[in-house]
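Tutorial handout. Part one gives the primary structure; part two gives the three-dimensional structure as tokens.
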Amino acid sequence: MKKVGIWLDSKKAIIVRITPNGETVDTIDSEVEFFNKTGTGGSRVKSGVTQDVVHESKYLEKEKHQFKSYFKNIVDAVSNSDELMLFGPADTSEKFKKELMEHYKPLFEKVLSVQKADSMTENQTKAFVRDFFRQE
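Part two.
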């Protein structure tokens, strides 16, 4: 039985697989570019050049597609698992769960839990996943 724990935030996902033969850990980088509009312009008086026009909706749409690609990479990496648990800071794990529910139903049905968890070292992450599946 393949039990998988995924710690994820908006920058990377750490996938811990627990099998009868031991544990493996993989990392998937998100490659999501975060839009920050501070410092994009300046006063026209100083330089004589018009300020940059920020098209926020275009950036948000691009970010949404990057998240979809990131989540697909995670799905591809864990598609053969029997049980899943998701954890991580903020709301990225909830977004991933929603993506599974909407587009990857068979994998969504394997999700046992979604939990909040701060950043962890690799050993803490492995221990967290081991403890979760031991209690199950």
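Part three, for discussion. The mean pLDDT is 86. The first helix runs from residue 44 to 47.
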